[in-house]
Design goal:
With about 150 residues, the protein is mainly beta. The protein is about 0% helix and about 75% strand.
């Protein structure tokens, strides 16, 4: 059964080691535990364009994190510490295939929420285009003590 959660997402991009772009989003979502994996779902809306993207984050006990986005942005990113994965990134402006190399994947989730920390590099044509830090804090409403 889905449980309501509050998700705080902070993302910082670095070009040549200098932080240039910071995004912070706080949004409601849901979290459930399925077959030992935590599944977190939320929607992002752009107030300027009314664009919506639905995101599903799945964490596995092995530490693997998958982020699937549908809507105005389409992608399926796999984060596995020390490994490179290719993914397809599609927007209304065009699409491309990119590589993602996770330097750090930290998952600390339980039935009442937790954290996901990922440091990764995005590669375009086998060259690092930029580096990212992604931090997600997932919390449950205080009155809910029911396990997932």
């Amino acid at each position: 059964m889905n449980k309501d959660v509050l998700i705080s997402i902070k993302s910082r991009q670095f070009f040549d080691g200098v932080g240039t772009d910071f995004i912070e989003l706080i949004t409601p979502g849901t979290m459930l535990k399925r077959n030992g994996n935590y599944v977190i779902k939320y929607c992002e809306s752009d107030p300027d364009t009314s664009a919506e993207t639905h995101t599903v984050v799945t964490t596995e006990p092995s530490g693997l994190v998958t982020v699937i986005r549908h809507g105005d942005i389409e992608s399926e990113m796999i984060f596995e510490q020390g490994r490179k994965h290719m993914f397809h990134y599609d927007t209304d402006k065009g699409s491309m295939t990119m590589g993602i190399f996770a330097n750090k994947v930290g998952v600390s989730l339980g039935d009442s929420g937790g954290k996901i920390d990922i440091d990764y590099a995005i590669e375009i044509e086998n060259s690092v285009a930029y580096e990212n830090q992604l931090r997600m804090d997932i919390t449950r409403p205080a009155q809910s003590g029911v396990p997932l």
